[in-house]
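Comment on this:
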Amino acid sequence: FQFGYHSLAGPFYKSHSCVPLIHTEVAERADRDRANMKNTPIIFTLAVSLGAIALLSGSTDATTCAGDPSMSVADACHKTSAWQGQRELELCRQTLRGARDGLTASAYGIVAVRAALESSEATEGAGKKLAQDRKISEDVRAVYQTCVDMYGFARADVAAMEGALKACSLADFRRFWEGALASVDYCARKLRLVVGDVLRRTVEADRERILLAFILGGLSFPK
């Protein structure tokens, strides 16, 4: 299985040129936006639902595809670290915490897909609050609304990744992953225009989770 994601999965923003900062003539407005965004209550921590607990115990309803190997959680996470290093290893351990050993690679991939979906939904919700916050200037709210729109596309693609795994379709799995990543990256580029943005770190985290889902799910396909 050849991942072929290096151009998309490198350091965040690596492939993008620098985006100009907000023009000096709107510096005062940027300062007001920064202060208002700091005062906007946004909770990014995801609660573990009963559904998530069931999913971590292995109830992923995954279809076993030809060549889909069974492995331990430790082995699955070790394989992800071979591609992305220590950071991805730690994220994998966090995502698969509570999952039982001996599941197929596609089952672990589905766990990661669902975690990425839940995270993306939370970020989209936070973006909606910012886009509707009248204390923030109109042009900055427009940036957040763009992110909300792009996250709608990303969420649909992440959800479709699970279906592609269950259908044993590498082509679709890759296509939906690329679509999700492109939407998240578009939002990230827009956020670089906003001084004092409070959403960027969660967008970066979503990108990492989507990448992890792709790597784990990709282990289910024969090389």
User: Anything to note?
Assistant: The first strand starts at residue 70 and ends at 71. The longest helix spans residues 138-166. Confidence is low (pLDDT under 50) at residues 2-58.
